[in-house]
Design goal:
This protein is mainly α. The two termini are about 30 Å apart. Strands 1-2 form a two-stranded antiparallel sheet. It is elongated, with a radius of gyration of 20 Å. Helix content is about 65%, strand content about 0%.
């Protein structure tokens, strides 16, 4: 992944990605694309990334942020007629979004082993760690980021179900059981491998 050392970037602390500053021309292109479809597919994001000369992951984040701002603005201006027409538009957007979705990422057993070990070390890795993992296992950093988000979410849900008085050994057993259950119920996504039982 090439580093962009342009003056349009500012450095933030605690190893986050650098904040992307888009030019006025880039923003015009992005806003026009957002107005056409706030849920662009992979091909559209790749085209936009090439057109404005930035990473696809930055495009994805820009659209996420723009949709979030757009949702906040809608909530602050309630209007029943507007809402009913938006509901109809939303169902069309959902259909289009499902068609344009990125294909599900499949991981090999060795990739999963590396990701799980990294997750157990630190469930909130910084950009440097994610980029290193991405390079090591041969997938884009954005996929590593989403994998960690998904696993954090799953583990938070699992931990909420646990009683507080369980010791760490029982927790590890439950985590292994959870993993085994996922592998059993989703063999097309997870690959069972004895290496995972450390």
């Amino acid at each position: 992944m090439a580093q962009d050392n342009s003056p349009n970037k500012t450095i933030t602390m605690n190893q986050r990605c650098t904040r992307t500053k888009f030019t006025e021309d880039q923003l015009k292109i992005l806003i026009k694309a957002f107005d056409q479809n706030p849920y662009p597919g992979c091909a559209t994001k790749q085209r936009l990334a090439l057109e404005i000369n930035t990473d696809e992951s930055r495009i994805q984040i820009w659209f996420q942020n723009r949709r979030a701002r757009h949702q906040c603005q809608k909530k602050s201006e309630p209007d029943e007629d507007l809402e009913s027409s938006q509901d109809q538009d939303h169902s069309e957007e959902e259909i289009q979004s499902r068609e344009d979705r990125r294909c599900r990422t499949s991981y090999t057993s060795s990739q999963l082993h590396t990701l799980i070990r990294a997750f157990m070390n630190n469930p909130y890795p910084g950009i440097d760690t994610r980029e290193q993992l991405a390079k090591e296992i041969g997938i884009p950093e954005s996929r590593v980021q989403i994998w960690f988000q998904n696993w954090r979410s799953r583990f938070h849900v699992q931990r909420k179900r646990e009683p507080d008085d369980q010791d760490s050994e029982q927790r590890q057993d439950q985590e292994q059981d959870l993993w085994d259950e996922r592998v059993q119920h989703h063999p097309d996504v997870f690959v069972s491998d004895p290496k995972f039982s450390d």
